[in-house]
Design a protein that fits this description.
- The protein folds into 2 domains: 16-156, P-loop containing nucleotide triphosphate hydrolases (Rossmann fold, 3-Layer(aba) Sandwich); 162-171 and 219-373, P-loop containing nucleotide triphosphate hydrolases (Rossmann fold, 3-Layer(aba) Sandwich), CATH 3.40.50.
- The protein has 14 helices and 13 strands.
- The protein has helices at 21-27, 42-57, 69-73, 76-81, 91-99, 142-145, 173-192, 202-216, 221-231, 244-256, 269-275, 309-319, 341-346, 359-373, and strands at 31-36, 62-66, 86-90, 106-110, 130-135, 148-152, 162-169, 236-241, 262-264, 281-285, 297-302, 328-335, 354-358.
- Helix 12 links the parallel strand 11 (297-302) and strand 12.
């Protein structure tokens, strides 16, 4: 069975943990968060739980809320499979409808960390009796939704065999000077304001923001990204950047070397070219989209490090979607002497599939491998 977006739900049997969602959800009074990594099967698992819920409580008004329509579209085949009657809505539209008195019996919050945003969080202000949040990185959303009643890690889900390569490189003296300027500013400010932190002091947060920008903008990242892209030519590839200018500069570099690609900054036209297979390489500002799914993608390149654990998990999630015979590689560029290394420390992806290698070593290895294969 498949929905209008072509997603099939009959490719595999449900996982055992999915059958336990209803029981664990009921144990927290039907108000809580299911934490599971991208590609875990949260959507299908939630529908299995909803089927049990309806069987017990009878016909119920179910509202599924998500940040965007791309994510909402993924629910359709599972709703059909489990013969559920449900409505769909984005967060802001749901807030408007509930403010008019249209209150559901059950509220499903996909990517429930979104409810931490003030406007989107209003969806929880209308006393819906039963709520289930879904997220790979729920953060403190449990404070609003309810306790985390299940937590499913990378080792418990079906993903393509994937290796994450953290490629470390040494920035130029000029690049480090620009980065360290903001580090010194932060240290001086904290000396004067010992209780300041990024959560309670806007000025300090702005200094750290500018320091991250200095790290993201390092031109040294681009030739490394180009070499990685060349190495994986012929594969379906997503390239993640944090800055629009970086995407544009990398696009110019690819054009110079006549490497066909598309660029996704805003809108969906270029994204559709990639989704439809017209282009095999897409350059994107940050992650393309939560919920974007293409099992044919085998390579991901993080040119500038994600600013949060959530972003990095979502980047990984775009690449690891399983398909028979697929092997995937994800590369993340880590600038020595910066806070990039937090991305390595904070990522709990299967340790045996994590590689940390200095750029010069990696380049020498690949060149030797290429000569051997020839």
């Amino acid at each position: 069975m498949s929905g209008k977006n072509g997603l099939s739900v009959k490719d595999s049997d449900p996982y055992g943990w999915q059958s336990n969602i209803y029981k664990n959800w009921s144990n927290v009074g039907f108000c809580g968060v299911l934490e599971a990594k991208p590609s875990a099967g949260k959507t299908r698992g939630a529908c299995i739980a909803l089927r049990s819920y309806v069987d017990v409580f009878g016909p119920s008004k179910i509202l599924i809320v998500a940040p965007n329509n791309t994510i909402l579209n993924q629910w359709e085949p599972y709703i059909l499979e489990y013969e559920l009657d449900a409505e769909y809505s984005t967060y802001l539209t749901a807030v408007k409808e509930m403010s008019r008195g249209n209150i559901p019996d059950v509220l499903i919050l996909d990517e429930c960390h979104s409810c931490l945003a003030p406007e989107w969080g209003k969806v929880l202000n209308y006393g819906v009796p039963h709520v289930m949040g879904l997220s790979g990185t729920p953060g403190e959303s449990y404070r609003r939704v309810g306790p985390i009643f299940m937590s499913i890690g990378w080792d418990e889900i079906n993903i393509a065999p994937t290796t994450i390569h953290y490629i470390t490189f040494t920035p130029t003296d000029e690049e480090l000077e620009k980065y360290n300027y903001w580090s010194d500013r932060a240290d001086a400010y904290k000396k004067e304001h010992p209780n300041a932190n990024i959560k309670n002091d806007i000025y300090l947060a702005n200094i750290y923001f500018r320091r991250r920008g200095a790290a993201h903008r390092m031109p040294s990242r681009l030739p490394i990204a180009l070499a990685l892209i060349k190495h994986h030519l012929g594969e379906r590839m997503m390239v993640f950047c944090e800055l629009t200018k970086q995407v544009k500069d990398l696009s110019k570099l690819l054009t110079k070397y006549k490497i066909d690609h598309c660029v996704h900054i805003t809108g969906k036209q270029e994204l559709d070219k990639f989704r439809d297979g017209e282009k095999d390489i897409i350059l994107s500002v940050k992650m393309v989209s939560e919920g974007f799914s293409d099992t044919n993608i085998t390579c991901g390149i993080v040119v500038s490090s994600a600013t949060s654990e959530k972003s990095h998990v979502q980047e990984i999630g775009r690449i690891i979607r399983p398909k028979e015979g697929k092997k995937a590689n994800i590369y993340a560029l880590v600038a020595n002497g910066t806070t990039d290394d937090r991305m390595i420390k904070n990522n709990d992806f299967t340790k045996k599939d994590k590689v940390i290698l200095e750029w010069k070593e990696w380049k020498t290895y690949i060149e030797a491998q290429t000569q051997y294969n020839q």
